[in-house]
Amino acid sequence: MEEIGKPTLLMQLNQMLLIRNLEIRGEAAYQQGKVGGFYHSYIGQEAIQVGCVAAVGVQHWFTTTYRCHALALLLGVTPNEIMAELYGKATGNAKGRGGSMHLFADRMLGGLAIVGGHIPIATGAAFSIKYLKRKDIASFCFLGEGAVAQGAFHESLNMAALWSLPCIYVIENNHWGMGTAVERAIAVSPIAEHLANSYGIKSYSVDGMDFFACYALFKEVLNEVLRTSQPLLIEAVTERFRGHSISDPGLYRSKEELQKAMERDPVLLMKAALIENKMLSEEEFEEMDRKQREIVLAAMKFADESPWPDPVALEEGVFAP
Amino acid sequence: MELQNIEIREALRQAIDEEMTHDPRVLIMGEEVAQYNGAYKVTKGLLDKWGPMRVVDTPISENGFVGLAIGAALTGLRPIVEFMSWNFSFVAADQLISNASKIYYMSAGRFHVPIVFRGCNGSAAQVSCQHSHCVEAMYGNLPGWVIISPSNAYDAKGLLKSAIRFNNPVLFLENEPEYGDKMDIPTDEYTIPIGKAKVIREGRHATLISYSRMIKFCLLAAKELAKKGFEIEIIDLRTIKPLDIATVAASVRKTHRAVLVEEGHLFAGISAEMGFQIMEHCFDSLDAPLVRVCQRETPMPYSKVLECQTIPNPERIIAALETVLL
Fold first, then answer.
1. What pLDDT, on a 0 to 100 scale, did the predictor assign at position B84?
2. Collapsed DSSP state (helix, strand, coil) of residue B234
3. Does ipTM come in above 0.85?
4. CA dihedral of A145, A150, A151, A153, whole degrees rounded to 10
5. Which chain B residues are closer than 8 Å to A131 by Cβ?
6. For chain A, where are the E strands, in sequence order?
7. A321 found inside a domain
8. For A243, phi and psi rounded to 5 degrees?
9. Pairwise CA distance, residues A220 & B231, whole Å
10. Contact B212, B121 (CB under 8 A)
11. Taking phi first (over 0 means left), then psi (-120 to 50 degrees means alpha), and beta for anything else, what does residue A80 get?
12. Half-sphere exposure of A202 (CA within 13 A, CB side)
């Protein structure tokens, strides 16, 4: 904790709070009919991607799933752009063409929403890194444990191991592929350990609710991958506090189970650690949370007041010049 | 102009080799493209010349390596992906459809996908129903990519070079039975613009519109009809999508009759689309209903007797022309 330093830690807690507030308000906007389509909240899993980006920086390639709001924020997409995209407005991250599941940043290849379909894409980014002889960056691929059942996952691991591609695959195991419990979908446990063995690569497991554990692990594995140019498989064990998407009431999970999971809320765990180390007071935390809420409320106002995309431009931009 | 007499496979190889020379970001990957020199020898010698980083043998993982190539295209490279046959592209359909054709639009232009997918399409010699698909109508239904299907060595080389330089996905459809077809083409470099059809035989009584391997059958049919005094115009589409309807319409307005020939199936095929567009542009010029000659609505049978009956053949094209002429 001393090593990371107070200013960085507070900044990362801020990021967690920003994500948390954006998801809460995004869902509220959905309930008001301002956001359509599917909405997959990252609430509960924040420590993983916040810890990762804090540890490795933003210069790498990143690819993730439909649960993509947090990563976009962390890679520099503004709350305004994200909220406007959720609202389907012209000022959105993808001018209202992508929506909740398809956010992009200069180093973020999506926001790709077919389960497992983004894993070869991230592997291709690692291929480019190797082809272009870049020794200073890696490709990060976040996936849910449900995607482990897809052929694309196994094909990617095989090629990455075969060709020594600097790709870090992060299974965010939140225990549920929509309403199917992981033990009903994946034959082995722990997942990463078993499957990494199959492809002759290394694996790590980490408590995905613990920012500090995630931060430390990502710092270490980045160095390792840059040194060895070998892919790695990480399993971050986590919990999503919401349904699979907003339309999922989560009836498959008991209230007690969820309550127990929420006792290890990554935001509260980080807060408690900072308070214990006298880096933060309860009042300061409340103030931070309030500020992030205000940023998100301002983003909602921005999105509300932004123009709709002009239907005249509907057919523009199908092809690159 | 200096000429060389070469096969289609050599024309394709030259296109790849020249573009790899011009741009170090161009690479080719696929099953057996490197050490084996290509299942159909299109990539012969490229591994020796360019090495394993730019001529990449892949495992038999179409979904994986197509996605990988798209990821590489998004991050600065310009891959050419060889499908040993387009039939295997179905294994990679998710990557093609959900990613390659969509990412430029859905990222609002942040990422473009400069990539060429190429390989042999349609039937070969008795390879039966799982290895004989024509994919152009299936993929042609989706926006976001270009579909090219040349019928000769000159077009194959010039169009493949344009495809490699294009900043969007291109589906480049070749034909296994035609790889050995020879033609005199320039030794100097040239390109052919995407999206331009070509009148390859002029005539005034009816227009035959087709592409790729079926052009050969159209030429045979036109020769037969010439014996009966009919001058048949033939248009080689070369690029299927975008469809060069201007060239097609100009010809139909001249001849007032048209037969559309497509190796693939009838239902919702390329000729269904083309016929509709002809109706939109040339309704008042038509003196006879349009007629289609397509693959019959059966999976491809193995027996050669049946195979040549289910795909269009010169006899069926002649019969169709007689229907519109008489």
1. 97
2. strand
3. yes
4. -30
5. 27, 53, 72, 77
6. 61-64, 108-111, 139-144, 167-173, 176-177, 180-181, 202-207, 232-237
7. no
8. -70, 180
9. 75
10. yes
11. alpha
12. 15
The domain limits of chain B are 3-186, 198-325
Nearest CB to A155; choose among B63, B72, B168: B63
Instruction: Write out chain A residues lying below 8 Å of B114, CB-based.
Output: 320
Label residue A231 exposed, middle or buried (CB < 10 Å: 0-12, 13-18, 19+).
buried
Residues 93-122 of B with CB under 8 A from A: 94-95, 98-99, 103-114
Whether residue B72 and residue A125 make contact (CB cut-off 8 A), yes or no, is yes
Judged against a pLDDT cut of 90, whether residue B292 lies above it is answered with yes
Distance from CA of B206 to the nearest CA of A (A): 35
Query: Residues of B numbered 273-292 whose beta carbons fall under 8 angstroms of chain A's beta carbons: which are they?
Result: none
CA distance B158 to chain A (A): 20
Spatial distance between the Cα atoms of A240 and A243, rounded to a whole number of angstroms:
7
Nearest CA in chain A to B68: A124
CB neighbours of residue A294 within 10 Å: 11
Candidate from B61, B99, B106 with C-beta closest to A97: B106
Q: What is the reported pLDDT for B326?
A: 86
CATH class of B198-325: alpha beta
Residue A292 included in any domain: yes
In contact, B239 and B194? CB cutoff 8 Å: yes
pLDDT tens for A81-100 read: 999 999 999 999 999 999 99
Q: Which of B53, B65, B94 sits opposite A117 (nearest CB)?
A: B94
A61 interfaces chain B, CB cutoff of 8 Å: yes
Find the mean pLDDT for residues B267-271.
97
Pairs across A and B, CB distance < 8 A:
135
B293 CB neighbour count, 10 Å cutoff: 28
User: Rounded to whole angstroms, how far apart are CA atoms B263 and B275?
Assistant: 15
Interface test mutation site (partner B, options A121, A150, A169, A316, max chain B beta carbons within 10 A):
A121
Q: Which domain holds residue A183?
A: 6-307
Backbone phi, psi, residue B292, to 5°: -110, 140
- The full length of chain B comes to 326
User: Residue A27 contacts by C-beta under 8 Å, 6 or more apart in sequence?
Assistant: A39, A41, A242, A246
Amino acid at B129: C
**Whether domain B3-186 has CATH 3.40.50.970:** yes
CB neighbours of A133 closer than 8 A, spacing ≥ 6? none
Whether A1 is in a domain gets the answer no
Q: How far apart are CA B229 and CA A145, in angstroms?
A: 70
A143 touches chain B (CB under 8 A): no
Q: What is the pLDDT of residue A2?
A: 77
Are A169 and A205 within 8 A, CB to CB? no
Q: What's the total number of domains in chain A?
A: 1
Q: Identify the burial level of A5 via C-beta atoms within 10 angstroms of its C-beta, where 0-12 means exposed, 13-18 middle and 19 or more buried.
A: exposed
Check which CATH number belongs to the domain holding A18 and give it: 3.40.50.970
